[in-house]
TrEMBL record:
Pfam families: PEPCK_GTP, PEPCK_N. This is Phosphoenolpyruvate carboxykinase [GTP]. Residues 21-241 form the Phosphoenolpyruvate carboxykinase GTP-utilising N-terminal domain. Mn(2+) binds at residues 229, 249, 296. GO terms for molecular function: phosphoenolpyruvate carboxykinase (GTP) activity. The gene is pckG. Residues 245-598 form the Phosphoenolpyruvate carboxykinase C-terminal P-loop domain. Belongs to the phosphoenolpyruvate carboxykinase [GTP] family.
Length: 603
């Protein structure tokens, strides 16, 4: 296949030669009608939105209610991610580890061109340069995504740094990540544009050695915004391993105490365990404040002084529609929604907003809906995309190119029993063990809520691009590197908002009241808060967590912090089985740490 002579290939003046050549190569395979280089401007955003509206992909909401906002509907058959069709094409299968599907890179390199052949016929091929992290930050990484989805371009505009500013800095010599995406719906033989084009054949391939990603068939952003989870976590985790930093599934926040002292905390929770809620919480403790730096991903690296620093690789959120006040402010205007219901007066609506609207409602599949319809009006994972500068709660340092120094690391998950509200790890290795053995009881899937237990180390089970056992070793190595540079790695804590009584009722109010636990953590960092040493770490002393203004009684707090040695021993055995399943990849130091805990529990 040759590049059509009539193809108006535009090369922006700043595009480095290797980029222009690669774009031409992909165009020769996919044969788009034309190529558009995205500049990231507001004018471009309007053009793309108008195209989406004209093709029936997007609906403009009532500007009097929700200015400059749009809703788009996915095909119900297009699932949130292409998990089982996502392949890590590393040269060595062992590099993919048991949590990833491995495929032979040579084989995939042969298949992909035929899958993508002519895939963009009749469509526009967009070239979107993006920067993950603040422009000019030594921790930032750049990339370019080619896509034939205007929906993706619109979403990337909202939640990433894209366009000319990035292109201008794209160093031809330096490495940048390449992503190719097609919805797999060429417009040939008179085929018309469809509301949310996609193809039932889905395939996502990562070539970690080549820093390249290919995604076919998916329209939904989770699988196809390649800079998002696929790069920010999956590819970046591998890059981070090779370069000595961490790309993690973490919220990043700034905690300010009544004296004005600021701390930066990163929290790793599995999906659906409340990272976004934590990063955007409204404090219920007078004088204490939480501000957001990142709701979902943090990139962490030792800084010039050896201490760990963190940045948010994104510049906004592609989040599940929220129930919290802070996020509601942020999405009051200038927002792209996907798969929400739409009211007859032109606003969006979803179940967790509470009372159904007074007007009629069209559900996310486009059908009329009433509370009696017996099905949800909005998709369980309906999303919004919004830029960070619209969030009233963003910390002013959120896009500081130097990043923020991490004062503490938190891990956590959903546990109805055994795990206390909060505890501090003995040291870095013990904290890494806590992260490696995170077990969570509930995973929110696309349309069902399962209540199963599953291990989800550091919340990275679905996102780590390499062997999870090696990931734990990498965490240990990063701690060692910090020490070798003469600094101390931050203390690690584990939290659990989800402990229940014997009738299954939650013991802890959670949400805004979680700031009380953060306050204890801050006091521990100062050496002020009292702690009780136990075999599983340091717990708060009675009365150490401020409870004024809550209905939590001292007895409830005691129940939240109670340790049952039988439960904990059983937990140790389960953890040992789990970490040992990674064979040679399981760090010896983690097994030793587990043995230490077990010995102390038996004593
Ligand atoms: P991803 O963005 O998918 O990685 O997940 P996340 O960690 O940001 O969690 P998400 O916001 O998707 O889900 C949070 C869920 O936990 C929601 O159902 C919240 O209502 C619930 N949640 C968050 N914080 C708390 C809390 O403190 N207590 C209780 N009981 N529930 C909480
Ligand atoms: Mn997430
Ligand atoms: Mn989230």
């Amino acid at each position: 296949m040759t590049l059509s002579a009539s193809l108006p290939l535009t090369t922006p003046p700043v595009a480095p030669e290797p980029l222009a050549r690669w774009v031409a190569e992909i165009a020769a395979i996919t044969t788009p009608e034309r190529i558009e280089w995205c500049d990231g401007s507001e004018a471009e955003r309007q053009i793309v939105m108008n195209r989406l509206i004209r093709n029936g992909n997007a609906v403009r909401l009532n500007p009097a209610i929700r200015p400059d906002s749009y809703v788009m509907r996915s095909d119900p058959a297009d699932l949130d991610d292409a998990g089982s069709r996502t392949y890590t094409c590393s040269v060595d299968p062992a590099d993919a580890g048991p949590s990833n599907n491995w495929a032979d890179p040579e084989h995939m390199r042969k298949i992909l061109p035929s899958l993508f052949a002519g895939a963009m016929s009749g469509r526009i091929m967009y070239v979107v340069a993006f920067c993950m992290g603040p422009l000019g930050s030594p921790m930032a990484r750049m990339g370019v995504q080619i896509t034939d989805s205007a929906y993706l371009v619109a979403n990337m505009h909202a939640m990433l740094r894209v366009g000319d500013d990035v292109l201008a800095r794209l160093d031809p010599g330096a490495s940048w990540v390449r992503g190719v995406h097609s919805v797999g719906r060429p417009l040939r033989d008179g085929r018309l544009a469809s509301p949310m084009p996609r193809n039932l054949t889905k395939q996502v391939c990562h070539f970690p050695e080549d820093k390249e990603m290919w995604a076919y068939g998916a329209a939904h952003g989770s699988a196809s915004i390649l800079a998002w989870k696929p790069l920010a976590l999956r590819s970046a985790s591998t890059l981070a391993r090779d370069e000595g930093w961490l790309a993690e599934h973490m919220a990043l926040l700034r905690l300010t105490d009544p004296a004005g002292r600021q701390r930066h905390l990163a929290a790793a929770f599995p999906p659906g365990c409340g990272k976004t809620d934590l990063a955007t919480l409204t404090s219920t403790l007078p004088g204490w404040k939480v501000e957001t730096l990142s709701d979902d991903v943090a990139w962490i690296a030792p800084g010039p002084d050896g201490r760990l620093r963190a940045i948010n690789p994104e510049a906004g959120m592609y989040g599940v529609v929220p129930s919290t006040g802070t996020a509601l402010d942020a999405i009051s205007r200038h927002t792209l929604f996907t798969d929400t219901a739409v009211t007859d007066d032109g606003d969006v609506w979803w179940e967790s907003l509470g009372d159904p609207p007074a007007t009629g409602v069209t559900d996310w599949t486009g059908q009329r809906w009433t509370p009696a319809s017996g099905r949800p009006a909005a998709r369980a994972l309906a999303r919004f995309a919004v830029s960070a500068d619209q969030f009233p709660g963003m910390a002013d340092s959120w896009d500081d190119p130097a990043g923020v120094v991490l004062d503490a690391i938190i891990v956590g998950s959903r546990r109805s029993r055994a795990v206390p509200l909060v505890r501090q790890a003995r040291d870095w290795d013990h904290g890494v063990l806590m992260g490696a053995t995170l077990l969570t009881e509930e995973t929110v899937n696309d349309s069902v809520t399962e209540t199963t237990e599953r291990h989800d180390p550091f919340g990275m089970r679905r996102f780590c691009g390499y062997n999870l056992g090696d990931h734990w070793q990498h965490w240990l190595d990063v701690g060692d590197a910090v020490r070798e540079a003469g600094a101390e790695p931050p203390p690690i804590f584990e939290v659990n908002w989800f402990r229940t009584d014997h009738e299954g009722r939650l013991l802890w109010p959670g949400f805004g009241d979680n700031v009380r636990v953060l306050a204890w953590i801050a006091d521990r960092l100062d050496g002020r808060a009292q702690g009780v040493e136990t075999p599983v770490g340091t717990l708060p002393a009675p009365g150490a967590i401020p409870l004024q203004g809550t209905e939590v009684t001292p007895a409830t707090m005691a129940a939240l912090l109670r340790l049952d040695p039988m439960d904990l021993l059983a937990e140790c055995e389960d953890d040992m089985r789990y970490v040992e399943a990674f064979g040679d990849h399981t760090p010896r130091r983690l097994k030793e740490e587990l043995c230490r805990t077990r010995t102390q529990l038996r004593a």
